[in-house]
Amino acid sequence: MSLDKQRRKLLSVLGAVFTTGLAGCSSQTRSASNENTAEAPESDTPEQAGTGVSETTDTQTETNTNTEAEPTASTEIGTKMSSETETETETQPEVSLVIDNISFRAWEITEDESGSVAPLGEQNPTLTLETGQRYIIDNNGWSSHPLAIRATDDTPLLSQSSGGTFVDDSAVNWVDNDDTVAFTFTDTLADEAAYYICTVHSSMQGDIEST
User: Fold this and answer.
1) I need a labelling partner for 105 at 20 to 30 A (CA). Which of 24, 30, 142, 167 fits?
2) Can you give the C-alpha Rg of the chain in angstroms?
3) What is the DSSP string of the chain?
4) Average pLDDT, the chain
5) Which phi and psi (to 5°) does residue 60 adopt?
6) What is the dihedral of CA 158, 164, 168, 172, to 10 degrees?
7) Which residues pair with residue 200 across a beta bridge?
8) Is the whole model's pTM more than 0.70, yes or no?
9) Please, which pLDDT band fits residue 163 given cuts at 50, 70 and 90?
């Protein structure tokens, strides 16, 4: 075999080997690329989906918690108004007394609901009245023996006859229904009240003390 033929044969063999090697590398590169492309969606998509659900759930939970925990302004106002109405409509405590005349000589207490205003059956007893307390007095002899409360200088403060410096006092709230009178024994009234009396018979009178 001549030298030229041997050289051409060698070059042909080397070219075949080189071509085969390049084909193998190209196949491996395409395979690796396809594997990476297939794996990418499996990694990204679930994470994004999972994150979205978690954030939505947390937001809804926080919204529901805040809505339940914080009272609305209208609820607070309604509660406050209800509380104030109940306070304003509370009735003032009252003490009932029944007084009667012993002829034209004296007064006597025949009933005392509190048991602390005056002893029963005693003539012209001292009345012990509590400041701030409201009293209702049934005067069984009112038609002939009008009741009055007076100051030390004999000024009428409250009276079933006429006059009385506290008759129009809103805090005292004097009420005269003939046989029944009612009043609140305020601090200012207590400062001036000295005695009670029948406006017709001066012998029917007794002292007033305040507590």
Assistant:
1) 167
2) 53
3) --HHHHHHHHHHHHHHHHHHHHHHHHHHHHHHHHHHHHHHHHHHHHHHHHHHHHHHHHHHHHHHHHHHHSPPHHHHHHHHHHHHHHHHTPPPPEEEEEEEEETTTEEEEEEESSS-S--TT-BSPPEEE-TT-EEEEEETTTTTS-EEEE-TT--EEEESSS--TTTT-TTT--EE-SSEEEEE--HHHHHH--EEEESS-TTSEEEEEE-
4) 76
5) -65, -40
6) -30
7) none
8) no
9) confident
Q: Where are the domains of the chain?
A: 1-90, 94-210
Q: 152 near 112, Cβ under 8 Å? A: no
Mean pLDDT of 191-197: 98
Residues 6+ apart with CB under 8 A from 96: 111, 113, 135, 136, 137, 138
- Dump pLDDT digits (tens) for 75-115: 554 555 555 544 444 566 899 999 999 999 999 999 999 99
Q: Which architecture characterizes domain 94-210 according to CATH? A: Sandwich (2.60)
- Checking 13-17 for CB contacts under 8 A at 24+ apart, the result is none
pLDDT value of residue 87: 44
pLDDT at 29 over 80: no
Residue reference for tokens 């209208």: 74
> How many residues are given for the chain?
211
Neighbours of 113 (CB within 10 A): 13
